[in-house]
Amino acid sequence: MSSSQALIVPFDPSAPSQAVAGVLPLQLWSLTPSGDKAPKAGATATFYNTPAGKTTTISSVGDGFAAKASEAKRELVRKSVGAAVKELKAFEGVKDVVVDASLDPHAAAVAAHLALYKFTLKTNVPSPFDPRNAEPAKDKIAFAPVEASAEWDRGVVYAQSQNLARTLAEYPANMITPTAFTERVRKEFEGIANVEIVVRDEAWAAEKGMNVFLSVTHGTSEPAKFLEIIYKGAADKNAAPLAFVGKGITFDSGGISLKPGAGMKLMRGDMGGAAAVVSAALAIAKLQLPIGLVVTTPLTENMPGPSATKPGDMCVSSTP
């Protein structure tokens, strides 16, 4: 029976055995029916009550790890920790997991939180991802490193931001309308310093002569939005900011040029660009990186309707 507390230990099968939190990974691996070959990266084994009161999953980073280039090492650590998390999360009752992140704290944190993620709204009701929830979704498992570090904390921010992008792109279109998208963004950025959120409406877009954008909105009853996220982290306030632009079609039916029905529901993901740039901005703002950043994303649905833009229609400027 698994414990509520667990330990993840990535290990190099070709390195001398070293104890981690009371665990000797090579010694444990020798107890498995593994044969003579060194285990491949991501090969795992789980042991109960090892050490006493804990469940331990050891996971290989592959043979010859020490000789690999730094980026290759980072990817192997991700693979190893991710495989261990996927194995552990299948056990009921595991709540707190300590990760030996000594090989690469950043990569270990990213892998742990990405591997834990599972979008459950479509299959489980109520769901922690239900946008009507007063509180945000809580992780099924809480992770902590054996030794705390700034790089681990930084990796957690990376992963959480990536998981936000995954969640936004997974939501059904009726739950992530342009209005709902902007409301979620406001909530995610609450309390973060140096950030300004500006949400523009269709009247503003018309004043700016954004007629091509507005033409996409003609077939839907959902109000379009134009979202701006302004992050002022640069020391030189006069320096030109970095700009991110993300496509935000929260459902793309194709309009009058209707797309085939097979796979149509996947068109909820046509706002993946917006999800990506918003989530990248969230990570940048949480980490308070010393840059200026402006994120813009037009948000609307593209639907058929009596006023929808027709093939061959022309969009002209507001004034001759």
Commentary on this structure:
By secondary structure, the chain is α/β, with parallel strands linked by helices. The protein is built from 8 helices and 10 strands. The chain has helices spanning 25-29, 70-88, 105-116, 150-170, 178-188, 202-207, 211-216, 272-286; strands at 5-11, 44-47, 55-60, 96-99, 142-145, 195-200, 225-232, 242-245, 248-252, 292-302. The protein has a 5-stranded mixed sheet. Strands 6, 7, 8, 9 and 10 form a 5-stranded mixed sheet that branches. Helix 8 (272-286) links the parallel strand 9 and strand 10 (292-302). Helix 2 runs parallel beside helix 3. The protein starts with a strand and ends in an 18-residue tail after the last strand. Residues 24-120 form the Peptidase M17 leucyl aminopeptidase N-terminal domain. Residues 163-317 form the Cytosol aminopeptidase domain. InterPro entries: Leucine_aapep/pepB, Macro_dom-like, Peptidase_M17_C, Peptidase_M17_N. GO terms for molecular function: manganese ion binding; metalloaminopeptidase activity. One of its GO terms (cellular component) is cytoplasm.
Task: Give a short summary of the structure.
By secondary structure, this protein is α/β, with parallel strands linked by helices. It contains eight helices and ten strands. The protein is 30% helix and 18% strand.
Supply the helix-strand structural class. Answer: alpha/beta
Q: What is the first-to-last residue Cα distance?
A: 76 Å
| H and E order | EHEEHEHEHHEHHEEEHE
Radius of gyration: 24 Å
Unreliably modeled segments: none
Q: Return the average pLDDT rounded to an integer.
A: 90
Tally of DSSP β-strands: 10
The biggest beta sheet reads: 5 strands, mixed
